[in-house]
Amino acid sequence: MEKKNGFMLFTLLLAFVLMLSCAGEERKKVKQDVLHIAAAANLSYVIPELVDVFEREYGEGAGMDIRVTKASSGSLTAQIRNSAPFDLFLAADTGYPRALYRDSLTVGEPVVYAAGIPVMVYRPEVEGDVGVACLTDPSVEKIAVAQPDLAPYGKAAIEILSGSGVLQQVEGKLVYGISITQTFQHVITAADAGFIAASLLHGEGGRELKKAGMEWIEFPLDAYDPEGLQQAMVLLDPSNATAVAFFKFMQGEKAEEILKKNGYRIE
C-alpha cells in the first residue's frame, strides 16, 4: 500500500514539473514573439516609419508584434530600473543609457544613433525672428518647456534661455511638460511660445503646428550643449533576435536617412 502511494506521489510530482516546464517554454515563446521598444518621446512621429521600414527590410520581423512605449527618457529609465519588460531603449541623450550601463542593466555600452535639434515655436503675433529676446515681451505670457530633470530637450531650452541672458526675466512664464510631446501639446493649446524637438515639426506634429499658424526658429550649436542631445540606445535583452536586428538596423543607412529627413542630425 505504501509503495502504491509513493508511486502515485512520484507520478503527480513528475506531472507538476512537466506542467511548469511547458508553461515556462510557452512564456519564453510569447516573450520571443514580441519586440518591446522603449522610445524617447521626441521619436513619436518618426518611430512608426522606422518600424515599417525595418519590417520590410527584415522579413523575419514581418510577423513580429512590435510594441513601442513612448515617454520621457527619465521616465523610461525609471521603468527599466523597475524591471519593465523592454528589449531595447532609444533615449534622447546619452546620460540615461550610460547610467543603466554603469548599473549593469544593459548589454554593452550605449551607441549614439542621432543628434537632436531644439527649436523654438511661437504664435505669429510674437516677434520670434529676433530670437528668445521676444519672450520678455509682456504679450508673451506662457512659454512651454519640458521638465529639464526628465527631458534633455528641456535642459537644452534652459541652456538657451540662460545663455541668452533672459532666463530670470522669463522664469515666471515657464509652464512645464513631463515629456517633449506633452510640451508640444502645451504649445498647441495654451502657450504663446515653447521649446520642442525639431523632429516634432514633421509628420502629424508639423501639420498641427501649421494648422495653429505657428512659426519656428532653430539655434546655432553654441547656444546649447549639443552633446546633451546626442541620442543613444542600449540593448536590454540579447536573447530577443528581433531586438538585436532592430539595434543593428538603427545603425544603418536606411535608419539614418529616415532620421535625417525628420529633424535629426547624423554625425
TrEMBL record:
Q: What CDD domains does UniProt report for this protein, alphabetically? A: PBP2_AvModA (cd13539)
Protein keywords: Metal-binding, Molybdenum, Signal
Q: Which GO terms describe its biological process?
A: molybdate ion transport
List residues binding molybdate. Answer: S73, I180
Q: Coiled coil located at which positions?
A: none
InterPro entries recorded = AvModA-like_subst-bd (IPR044084), ModA (IPR005950), ModA/WtpA (IPR050682)
Task: Cite the Pfam families for this sequence.
Answer: SBP_bac_11
Q: Which GO terms describe its molecular function?
A: metal ion binding; molybdate ion binding
Family (UniProt): Belongs to the bacterial solute-binding protein ModA family.
Its recorded name reads Molybdate ABC transporter substrate-binding protein
Organism equals Prosthecochloris marina
